[in-house]
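tool_call: predict_structure(chain=1)
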Amino acid sequence: MTENQNPLVSILLPFKNTDKYLAECLQSILNQSYNNWELIAVDDHSTDTSRDIVAGFARRDTRIRVVTNSGNGIIEALRQALGTSSGVQVTRMDSDDRMTSGKLEMMSRSLLQFGEGHVAVGYVRYFSSEGISDGYARYEKWLNGLTASGSNFSEVYKECVIPSPCWMTSRKDLDRCGGFQPNRYPEDYDLTFRFYQNNLKCIPVKEVLHWWRDHKTRTSRTSHRYAVNYFLDIKLHYFLLLDHDKQRHLTLWGAGNKGKSIAKGLLQKGIDFHWLCDNPRKIGKNIYGKEMLHYEVLGNMDNPQSLITVANAGAQRRIRNFLRSVHHKPLQDYFFFC
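tool_result:
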């Protein structure tokens, strides 16, 4: 098999104080059916035995390299890992998770089949010694539903549609998308938006490739950089950059906490908008200097764009039905922000 048919895959693994899970993670990488890989493990200044564990694996397998983060935090660790790596294809791994044995092989082969301009993804399964919350279960089902058809980017403004430890792309495409250069958190959501910005396509798959561990000390639970306001900020940033048409009326639908956060962001940027809701107690009231309008005015507006910040699933269905009734199209005329 030639190098082009068996490309080197670089696995980028930032780690910090995950000695409880690291051996299991590393063993899942060693168990891969695909063997032409390198693992760049970047120690983000661990204070437990994490580095010793990785160093022990590295002594037994030369495909594993462990380096120290020259900066601080996961973005700088990923940046250093990418700069140190040399693979034609690149993927990321979290130090508290597990790969299925065929993960690298399926992703690498998919990229070879579909070519550049694509992202290989896979089903994920959450697991935890304490059980999985309803929120994570819903997210898993929703995410895997998108992955099954490769339609991940169709709902890119709702949540992160590509799981941070379950993607692979060519180095050329990753570099074209800016790698890990932006200092913007959440870093996985930012990268997802840059994949979307550069028109990469997700390759459909219906197989579990990654076991995603949930535990009380995982970064997404403990770091302020993964708070709700960061997700809203990044959604608004990329909407204004990529999909906002300044020639069209902008409307904001929803006056809950998320709606108010988006409203503040728009006002701070000097962007005018109409604020809509279906709550009789709020219609006609003034919030932040904007009068709350009944959502039905949307049907009389000339070519508007709408941001939807209503989270309730039943309400979202009713909103979609109304938008269809006035012939509005997703990712063109309206964007669900939750």
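agent: The radius of gyration is 22 Å. Proceeding to next step.
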